[in-house]
Amino acid sequence: MKKVYPDAKSALDGLLRDGMMIMSGGFGLCGIPETLSEAIRDSGVKNLTFVSNNAGVDGIGLSRLLETRQIRKMISSYVGENKLFAQQYLAGDLELEFNPQGTLAERIRAGGAGIPAFYTKTGVGTLIAEGKEVKEFDGQKYLMERGLFADLAIVHAWKGDAAGNLVYRKTARNFNPMMATAAKVTVAEVEHLVPAGEIDPDHVHTPGIFIKRIVEVGGARKHIEFRNTRPRPAAA
């Protein structure tokens, strides 16, 4: 089965439709599948639900799909640092399903493992619990959360091979591995594509069985959310 595609547009061909749910890996601006998300924007699909820790920052990542109003709903954990996100939400133009970060991660992991729901103490007695089942175990209250499983997942990896095996680099791993397991189809963008068999099996983070399509995008743009510097003292 051919998994390698020449570009992001062809890698997504036939997979996109209005109203679908898409998981997008990354944390802040680290490990985001930026090339694939831009191809989704360029496709023109709309009324999308995105599962992502956040929506990037203004002008970068998923925020570019907010600019074109292709996103109807975000299932997220962190919504700061994005003025457009806040503006659309406060105006009632964007639906938000807010999750504690650990809960979001576990909802994705559970979806990938075929677990429809689980119980957690996180969120009990807060706005997060509204409309959800609360059950008592051993004298403690727990909130039921549903697993998440998407129509499509897009992920970013440092290295991949032609069989779809992926290796992530340091903190750019974040949500990518679990999202790769939690969708009907997962498309990966990789910075370096190597022949099948070149990656040591012990180094594989996401086995190729989860990856249906892969595209090489070269060195990723390393965005910095906040550049903090201090003046360098003049040479003596």
From TrEMBL:
Keyword Transferase: yes
One family name in Pfam for this protein: CoA_trans
NCBIfam families for this protein: pcaI_scoA_fam (TIGR02429)
SMART domains assigned to the protein according to its UniProt record, in alphabetical order: CoA_trans (SM00882)
Protein name (Swiss-Prot/TrEMBL): Succinyl-CoA--3-ketoacid-CoA transferase
Superkingdom as given in the UniProt entry: Bacteria
Keywords tagged on the record: Transferase
PANTHER family according to UniProt: ACETATE COA-TRANSFERASE SUBUNIT ALPHA (PTHR13707:SF60), KETOACID-COENZYME A TRANSFERASE (PTHR13707)
Species for this entry: Nitrobacter winogradskyi
Molecular function, one GO term: CoA-transferase activity
Iron recorded as keyword: no
